[in-house]
Amino acid sequence: MGTQETHSTDPVPTTPAGREALAAILARPAATLVGLDFDGTLAPIVENPEDARAHPDALAALAALAPKVAAVAVITGRPAEVAVRNGGFAGARGLDHLTVLGHYGAERWEARTQEITAPAPHPGVAAVRAELPAVLDAAGAGQGVRVEEKGGRAVAVHTRRAADPLAAFETLREPLAALAARHGLIVEPGRYVLELRPPGMDKGVALLDHVRATGAGSVLYAGDDLGDLPAFSAVEKLRQDGVPGLLVCSGSTEVTELAARADLVVDGPAGVVRLLRDLAGQLG
Q: Pick from 99, 34, 87: which is nearest to 57 by CA?
C-alpha cells in the first residue's frame, strides 16, 4: 500500500517499489515511458470540461523531459484532437517523443507526424446519445447536469454543476447503466461524471499496449481519478513481470483510491508539473 495522504511536496516515493522504480528511471531514462492523464493531472479540473487547459508550465516541463526518455504518452478519455488542442501540444518544440492516446487508446496522435489515426466509432454511442435526453428527464436529474460529446466514441454526463452534485450522480447511476447495457456499452464513474463508452477501452489497456510498442523497461504513470485505476493496475502487473513502475497520484480530496495505491502523491497538476521538471533536471 502507498501513502494515505492526499497531498505531498516530498519528491521521494514513500514505498519500496516506488523508490526502486525511480532509481531505474534515473539509471536508464532512455528506456522509460512516462504516462500521464490529462484532466486533473496535466490540467486543473474546471466546472466546464470544455474550458480545461494544461497547467501554464506543463508544456515547458514536458519539453524538458520528453527528449530524455523513451516516450511520453498522454492517456485520456477525451478525443485526441481535444487533448492536443487543450494541451497546446501541436507544433510545440521538444515533444517529438509525445503520443496522445485519446478515447482510452482508440485514437492516437503522434507529435512527429501531427496526425490522428482511429478506427470507426462503436454504433452504440450514437444510439445512447439519441436516447439520453429522455433518460435524464425520466430520472429527474435536475438542472446543471451537462452532457459532453466525445467525438462519437463516448458520452459523458457531468453532475458537478448540479445543485447537489453527489445526489445527481447517485440518481443517474442506475438508469445510465441500464441505457449503456442496452447498447453494448459500459458506464465508467469519475469525479462527478458518468461516462458511457464501449467495453475494452481503458487506460490500463492503452498503457500496456504502449509499453509493449515502445519496449520500455520502466514506467511512470500519473493520474487523479477513478478512470486511472486501470492504469495503476497495469503498472502493478508490469512490476510483477519485472518492469519497475512508479505510481503518482495528482492529489485530490474527491478521489482517495489512487492516493491509497500511489508511491507518491503530489499537489494536483502544479505538483505533477514540478515532478516532471525536477525529473528532467535530475536527468541532466
A: 87
For residue 104, what is the DSSP state? G
120: exposed, middle or buried (C-beta count within 10 Å: 0-12, 13-18, 19+)? exposed
Tell me how many degrees the CA angle 248-253-259 measures, rounded to the nearest 5. 30
Predicted TM-score (pTM) of this structure: 0.79
Q: Which residues are catalytic?
A: 37
Per-residue pLDDT of 17-52, as tens digits, reads 999 999 999 999 999 999 999 999 999 988 887 888
> Strand pairing of 115-117 and 107-110?
antiparallel
Q: Which amino acid type is present at position 2?
A: G
Per-residue CA distances from 225 to 44, 196, 219, 251 (Å): 12, 16, 19, 9
Smallest CA-to-CA distance from 101 within 87, 45, 262 is with: 87
* Cβ(139)–Cβ(172) below 8 Å: yes
